[in-house]
Amino acid sequence: MTEQLHQITVTVNGVARRADAPARRLLADFLRMDLGLTGTHLGCEHGVCGACTVLMDGVPVRACLIFAVSADGHAITTVEGCCDSGGELGPVQQAFQECHGLQCGFCTPGFITTITAYLEENPKPTEEEAREAIGGNLCRCTGYQNIVAAVLRAAEILRERDADQAGAGGAA
Ligand code: FES
Ligand code: FES
Question: Nearest 5°: CA angle at 121, between 118 and 126?
Fold first, then answer.
């Protein structure tokens, strides 16, 4: 018997996307297979490792625990959407590069999305808060030290960019 398909419309990284998928298609699989956004990684597929984390209406969710049909009508941000408007590295991505916050990179998309959302809420975290912020994401390579440094550096980059913008606004 052919599986019934449902039309799913989501805004992904600011762009309206539509595809048909079965009711039990996971959001992670929908993003990867139906929309071709393979930046979202699947590790444990049990909600434990955080590799699949995307933002749904700005809130981090595990894309391995949500059916794509549940995301219908919502705004999703994946790691591909965490770059700057010109396609350059976004603040968190830049911080990961500068601080060597990745090795194999498998866990990285989940960290980038998680930290992006976290810094919106807490733009000036302490080291301890930075450590807590990534407590739900697992990395088998780095030992976390450089990732914590990347959280703090990303916060700094965001503040620098804000200051630059304010300066540019004042000069205009
Ligand atoms: S793949 Fe979703 S939490 Fe591990
Ligand atoms: S960089 Fe390899 S799992 Fe995190």
Answer: 70
